[in-house]
């Protein structure tokens, strides 16, 4: 395997580590009914609240109030991606840093009226996505996922497409304090996916090179290998289109089975995402032409143009437009 160390881009000043974890991903689409049935009845999430056609879905094993929010809209779009902060003071500090850096706020820190409440702000990232950062959200009563129970334990990570990923990576490093864990590269194009962390999970966010701004995939952690395979089988038996998998990636050492939801977004069942020691970790560039980098097991279908195009998704219609809720 070809590996080498990479350096952080020159001139990037790190913010303090104010982001603690990934909370939820909120998406909108024209056909809300089919999407709700998919995530609740097939994917294995639990509807915990709904308000005026907005549905909040939790993972039974997660203390987060919800990990997916669904909303009907005439356009297919990402409403927002939400991260946690440790305290109201950290939210205020982040807001002050963003304002000083001329980052456009959707709203300043305030009390939130979504399930669990809390205190948070929203702002646009460099590509026009809405990002929310919140603290003091009430913990949801959750439970241990049992053996052979093939439903998500928690939200694992979120991957987005950017036509200028180097700038997007630098933006998240500079303004939100994310750290580069690893990079995937191809000889003819260089880097095409950057894995970023905000805690000791290998990645909570990744940035992929794509033709336009869009969601790449949303990943959900399962209890273990058996539960991951049972969930994969349930989706296959239900006739849900599988894009790629089952297999096991090199970067992150996690399993993968990618499917399409009812709006054409890619979603993933995974498990065993690598935990790292931040004090000793050095980023590595992985050569994706080596077969075991994409899939250590050799069990997944080949990554081809069709799989790649579906992962590129449709252009996000919500860029630099704040969601109504």
From TrEMBL:
InterPro entries: Glyas_Bleomycin-R_OHBP_Dase (IPR029068), Glyas_Fos-R_dOase_dom (IPR004360), GlyoxalaseI/FosfomycinResist (IPR050383), VOC_core (IPR037523)
SUPFAM superfamilies per record: Glyoxalase/Bleomycin resistance protein/Dihydroxybiphenyl dioxygenase (SSF54593)
Gene3D superfamilies hit by this protein: 2,3-Dihydroxybiphenyl 1,2-Dioxygenase, domain 1
Domain VOC: 21-136, 154-272
CDD domains per the UniProt record, alphabetical: BphC5-RrK37_N_like
Classification via PROSITE patterns: VOC (PS51819)
Name of the protein described by the UniProt record: VOC family protein
Organism: Mycobacterium deserti
